[in-house]
Amino acid sequence: MEIRTIRYFLAVVDTGSISAASRALHGAQPSLSRQIRQLQTSLGCELFVRHRGRLHISPAGARLLPVARDLVTRHDQAVAMMRALAEGREPRLTVACTVTTINDALAPLAAVSRHAVLNLMEVPTAAIALATGTRVELTQASTRYEHFRSSDVLSATFAEHLSHTGITVGEPTPGIYLGSSDIGNVSARVPAIHPFVAILGPDESDHTPRFAEAAGGPDGRKAMLASAEALACTAADVLLRRKEAAGL
User: Which is deepest, 56, 62, 132, 162, by most CB within 10 Å?
Assistant: First the structure.
């Protein structure tokens, strides 16, 4: 089973037919058909079946598919790595991530020796670098995010106004901090708050399809309008109560 033949198999899967695959590969259809038959013979199973005149991948072909894609990917990686080494250049892996990730996770990893990296396969960047034969190179392109400092006075004022809309504010969960956000840098210079108003249950999470659906639905609109009203009232209190604002 050659890489070239596996590419033929993948081309047929991706295009949906022998004729389309031969056009994509700029080859002759009879030759491609012969290669697919030889591959099936060598594996001892049918990779495609015809149903109502159309070609469909068989159960055996579906089992082979992820393995075939992985084989082709690894083959191409190996060829690229060897060519780069032969030309005297080292492959590079560029990682785009937040400053927090660089400082807290990747920088300590880059400081250890190559042998230590081999024991850190659970770190995604190290695993990718090892799998592709590259090295990790980190560049901090912006200022580090500072820890967020919440104003107790502003928080209490906001919570009071939010309660008038029927939404109550719970106590912060211990050990849970804001993610990468420049509001931390802002809060180091002026009083600030960063409230979260739930639109799902306590067991739900953001960055999910359910959260996206809720954000565009009635619960999301209710939370948005209530939060905007509470923020506006909080800002008005700061402007109108100068004496209290001076103690922030």
Answer: 162
Give CA 218 to chain center in angstroms. 28
- Report the distance separating Cα 248 and Cα 151, nearest Å: 7
pTM of the model: 0.42
The residue assigned the tokens 């190559």 is 114
Q: What is the pLDDT of residues 11-42, one digit of tens each?
A: 998 888 888 888 888 889 899 999 999 999 99
- What is the enclosing helix (H) or strand (E) of 39? helix 29-43
> How many angstroms separate the CA atoms of 81 and 119, rounded?
22
Sheet strands (E) in the chain: 48-51, 54-57, 92-94, 135-137
Interatomic CA distance for residues 9 and 38, integer angstroms: 11
Q: Which fold has domain 3-77?
A: Arc Repressor Mutant, subunit A (1.10.10)
